[in-house]
Amino acid sequence: MEMTPQTILILAIIGVFAGVLSGFVGVGGGVIIVPALVFFLGLSQHTAQGTSLFVLSMPVVLFAVINYWKSGNVEWRYGLVIAATFLIGAYVGSKLSLKLSPGMVKLIFGVFLAYVSFRLILSGYSSISSNES
């Protein structure tokens, strides 16, 4: 894949957008980077996922974590347990994903995001409604 100025600009926009959302609501990799790489740069689902995981292997969220830590909003023990088991899960998940077609992975990913979105919308709506009464 060629690194044209246009490609670099798109990648930079994806990075800034994913970084802002990651710091703001804790999402970035799968929710922002993967779909953006698929839709805007035409990467396959597997290549987008691999690229997103590469980004996450860098210390890209360090400054955001520091801000949350300074305000007392990091549970280090929870994070360490999740990180340790994430290693195993990421390895198993990548093996499973690569055995499926990119289209099937896209479908599973889309259904998962729709489910999570629906649950978050209902949860947000119910907490707004209960605050207004």
Tag the structure with descriptive keywords.
about 130 residues; mainly alpha; globular
Describe this structure in words.
The protein has 133 residues and is mostly helical. The protein has one domain (5-132). 83% of the residues lie in helices and 0% in strands. It has 6 helices and no strands. The protein has helices at residues 5-25, 29-41, 45-56, 62-70, 76-99, 102-132. Helix 1 (5-25) runs antiparallel to helix 2 and helix 2 packs across helix 3. The radius of gyration is 17 Å and the shape is globular. 9% of the residues are buried. The model has no long low-confidence stretch (mean pLDDT 87).
Q: In terms of topology, how is this protein built?
A:
Layout: H1 5-25, H2 29-41, H3 45-56, H4 62-70, H5 76-99, H6 102-132
Helix pairs in contact: 1-2, 2-3
Question: Quick gist of this model?
Answer:
The protein has 133 residues and is an all-alpha fold. The protein is 83% helix and 0% strand.
Task: Please state roughly what percent of the residues sit in beta strands, choosing from under 5%, 5-15%, 15-25%, 25-35%, 35-45% or over 45%.
Answer: under 5%
The helix content is: over 70%
Radius of gyration, in angstroms, nearest whole number: 17 Å
Computed structural class: mainly alpha
Average per-residue pLDDT, rounded, comes to: 87
Distance between the termini: 55 Å
> What is the number of helices?
6
The geometry reads as globular
| Poorly predicted residue ranges | none
Largest beta sheet, briefly? none
In total, the number of strands is 0
Number of structural units classed as domains:
1
